[in-house]
Every structure is written in C-alpha cells, then in structure tokens.
Amino acid sequence: MITTRLPMPGRGPRPMRPGGGGGELPHTPLRPMWCCRVDGQPWPCAEARLLLRVEYDGNLTGLSIYLAGLMYEAMRDLYHLNPHDGPEPKVLFDRFVAWGPARRPPAEPA
Predict the structure, then answer these.
(1) What's the total number of domains in the chain?
(2) Which helix (H) or strand (E) holds 76?
(3) Is 9 within the bounds of a domain?
(4) pLDDT (0 to 100) of residue 2
(5) Can you give the pTM of this predicted structure?
(6) Which residues is 42 bridged to in the sheet?
(7) What is the number of other CB atoms lying within 10 angstroms of the CB of residue 98?
(8) Are the CB atoms for 30 and 38 separated by under 8 Å?
(9) Where do the record's region annotations for Disordered lie (predicted)?
(10) Would 108 be classed as within a structural domain?
(11) Distance between CA atoms of residues 43 and 1, nearest Å
C-alpha cells in the first residue's frame, strides 16, 4: 500500500564549526553584532581562532578564503547596524584575516 505520510525527519548533525567538544556551546558568531555566543568577545574569539586553526590544519588557503568571506559579511552587518560610527576596515582586517595564516610582507616596487 502506498501512503503519502512520510516519517518526521530527524534534527540532523550538530554544527561543527567552530565548536568545542562534548555538550559545550559552539564558539560561533552572534549576528549581526559579531560577538561570540559563548564568551561575548568580538568574534572570532581566542577559542574560535584555535578551533579554526585546528579545523583548517593543512588548508591555510581555505582558512584565508573563509575568513575573508566572514570579514565581508561582518563589515556589511556592522555598517548596517551603525553606518556613522562603524569599525575601521583595518580593524576588521586585523580581527578576521590578519591572525590567520602567515603573510608575506608587501613587495617593494621595482
């Protein structure tokens, strides 16, 4: 007999980025303020940075791309919240991207 009644889907897997072990809350950003859901520090907090480094171990290019995308989203959200007194672009770059994979100094002009 064919029925149109389907079983209720499960909740699915819990998010892993960047999360702690066990039943701890993950250190993810609370948007649109971009503070950590766990400790209230500006995201990425120290714990999130460590967890992201571990997660992207061996894929530092991927980490840079991921962080740059998040910086863009944070910039959009933060300027939308406070267009007249938003954070400076350098501050956001330092917060999201500069701590990631080691960078080369800028090349000297020829």
Answers:
(1) 1
(2) helix 60-81
(3) no
(4) 57
(5) 0.69
(6) 35
(7) 13
(8) no
(9) 1-25
(10) no
(11) 53
